[in-house]
Design a protein that fits this description.
Jelly Rolls; alpha+beta; globular; 2 domains; transcription regulation; Arc Repressor Mutant, subunit A; Tscrpt_reg_AraC-type_HTH
Amino acid sequence: MVSPLVDCVCASPMLPVCTVDLSPIVHNSCLYVSGKSMDMFSGLSSSFAINAQVFHTGELCGVADFSDDHGVGHLHIVRHGRATVFYPDRAAIEIETPSVLFYPRALNHRLVVPDASAADVLCATISFAGGAQNPLAGSLPDSLLVPLDSVATLAATLDVLYQEAGADAYGRQVILDRLCEVLIVQLLRYAVSSELIEHGALAGASNIFLARALSAIHARPGQAWSIASLADEAGMSRSAFSRLFHDVVGVTPAAYLADCRIAAAQRLLDEDRPVGTVALEVGYGSQPAFTKAFTRRVGMSPREWRKRSGSG
């Protein structure tokens, strides 16, 4: 668990950590594209898992620092009160109405509540399986600030979240974590439908042609995909597919496939699968080739990754 350095917390002790897999919920999140229902998360959920860990609920006063040293993102839900968010290298932002502030990746920031006042805040750490190689995490902006009343679908989730935060019952932590994960999926829906996300996996998933190719990659990352076979999935010519993929997703199909393979490999390694078996399952012809590619992208060998994640 990563805890901020809080100068003054007026209420609520820090909570124990509990990890929840969001896959069953993510599979039910749909986006309508060109009149057709497109489940944009179903393929992605096989390559990633969202993990929310709530560590503070209740009143917050003074200053809370959130370092980027630990490699996790954050979710802050400001229910009541005012706060200012300061950054070391960008302009500060003022939160004057109930809002949710989402950092999908680690970002150094400071949450400051005005003197002689307090804000009702829920804070959670957020991580994505695969880290920087995760195709979903990489498609999101550094931060997303959304007034709570601008997304009607958040109301029901927030009602249950607030009720559970004020309860003292068995399973409270599990429910809080899972509800935060649901809230993130709802935020992603809003971001895509509001065109706040212009590039990356989510933007590609909202394109009726690219979604077919992306879905195929996510479902079968170990397959020997070529530009021609992916273009066939999309129903496009190879040249048109390559241009559209790069323009929308922001990388070449080959680079995106490589990231998906590494993310899938990390998940399998976390399940304590043998390195050689993982190499074959994610599409590498040999263990040395897989180890070289994994090390180049992650910065450590597959065995080192497994030891660091606690599964080896």
